[in-house]
């Protein structure tokens, strides 16, 4: 079968003819890949800063944002049948009995670091014509979401983050729900975060680098979130215009932008980090002032990565809600679709011409 392969030792990326996977257990499902979204993690892998092939393999098949179609089910599989659209989860639990997170079905909180991640760490991903997965890690996608269900995995970032924020804010029983939010960055994770926040009732503003007009600003404002450029509006001016945010949702991967936003955060507020800064970013901090602010304002800084079973289910549910509330809003986030042969050029920005979300299609 056709597959994109990353060879870390050779520092090479190419489309190969890989062995077609077959069912190995009665609880497995064979899936034909329909679409794979690309993101910053894929860029890190293609720049050989990250990504580990499965044991015994010289290459890694990337791709962790996936929509597929069931073509075969094992004898013990219930609830799935040929033709169903499915979205697979990314992370698999570590094998250690001493890891309570993994043993309780939350490998996204793994304590040992010995988890595997499809398309990222020690397991092939989904950027191939087909893959096999245990039914426990698959979620059925409604057929009416066929054109946008590839956005499920990046939306789970917001679903998990907001689930954690809700727990944190329970420390403030008098606080009216939900409050003000600022989203840093207007890429796919940021845009989906905007929709998730608006759906929950947050008064939400997008704060991103590029001045208007641009497609990202247009996408945010189309769903009702004002867009401000950090090149034109300082954090202090942001507060004057939008009010001090109770929640800052970082979706840039820029350490400087993230910590600069702390100047705007309201007392008792929460800053959520979702981005992973690229290598070589330099950051100068006034540590004493930041510590003083966090303490005196009772602020919380939260890091979040990956997502659980419940977050994937919530994301699929929210995609349906978003589509009903903002017709065309999700479709606007998908800038273009490309064949597998263009994977490297799309991820590295040589094809596609910017935009928001680029997708690899397998038919």
UniProtKB/TrEMBL annotation:
CDD domains: glucose_DH
Requisite cofactors: Zn(2+)
Pfam families for the chain: ADH_N (PF08240), Glu_dehyd_C (PF16912)
Keyword Zinc attached: yes
InterPro entries in alphabetical order: ADH-like_N (IPR013154), Glu_dehyd_C (IPR031640), GroES-like_sf (IPR011032), NAD(P)-bd_dom_sf (IPR036291)
Top-rank taxon, per record: Bacteria
Keyword Zinc found: yes
Residue intervals of the Glucose dehydrogenase C-terminal domain: 147-360
Keyword line: Metal-binding, Oxidoreductase, Zinc
Limits of the Alcohol dehydrogenase-like N-terminal domain: 26-142
Protein known as: Glucose 1-dehydrogenase
């Amino acid at each position: 079968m056709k597959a994109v392969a990353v060879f870390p030792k050779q520092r090479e990326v190419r489309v190969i003819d890989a062995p077609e996977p077959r069912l190995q257990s009665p609880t497995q499902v064979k899936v034909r890949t329909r679409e794979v979204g690309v993101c910053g993690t894929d860029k890190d892998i293609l720049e050989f800063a990250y990504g580990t092939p499965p044991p015994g393999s010289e290459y890694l098949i990337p791709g962790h944002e996936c929509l597929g179609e069931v073509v075969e089910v094992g004898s013990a599989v219930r609830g799935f049948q040929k033709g169903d659209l499915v979205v697979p989860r990314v992370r698999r639990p570590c094998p250690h009995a001493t890891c309570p997170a993994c043993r309780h079905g939350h490998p996204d909180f793994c304590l040992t670091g010995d988890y595997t991640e499809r398309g990222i760490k020690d397991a092939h991903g989904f950027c191939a014509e087909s893959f096999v997965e245990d039914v426990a890690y698959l979620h059925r996608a409604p057929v009416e979401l066929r054109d946008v269900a590839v956005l499920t995995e990046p939306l789970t970032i917001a679903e998990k983050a907001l689930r954690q924020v809700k727990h944190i804010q329970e420390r403030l029983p008098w606080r009216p729900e939900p409050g003000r939010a600022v989203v840093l960055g207007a890429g796919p994770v940021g845009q989906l975060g905007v929709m998730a926040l608006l759906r929950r009732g947050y008064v939400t503003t997008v704060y991103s680098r590029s001045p208007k007009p641009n497609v990202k600003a247009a996408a945010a404002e189309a769903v009702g979130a004002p867009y401000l450029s950090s090149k034109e509006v300082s954090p202090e001016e942001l507060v004057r215009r939008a009010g001090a945010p109770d929640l800052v949702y970082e979706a840039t991967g820029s350490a400087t932008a993230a910590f600069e936003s702390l100047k705007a955060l309201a007392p008792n507020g929460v800053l959520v980090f979702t981005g992973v800064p690229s290598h070589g970013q330099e950051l100068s901090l006034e540590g004493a002032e930041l510590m003083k602010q966090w303490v005196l304002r009772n602020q919380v800084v939260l890091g979040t990565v990956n997502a659980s079973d419940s977050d994937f289910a919530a994301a699929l549910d929210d995609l349906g809600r978003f589509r009903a509330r903002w017709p065309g809003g999700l479709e606007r986030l998908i800038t273009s679709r490309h064949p597998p042969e263009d994977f490297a050029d799309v991820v590295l920005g040589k094809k596609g011409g910017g935009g928001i979300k680029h997708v690899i299609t397998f038919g």
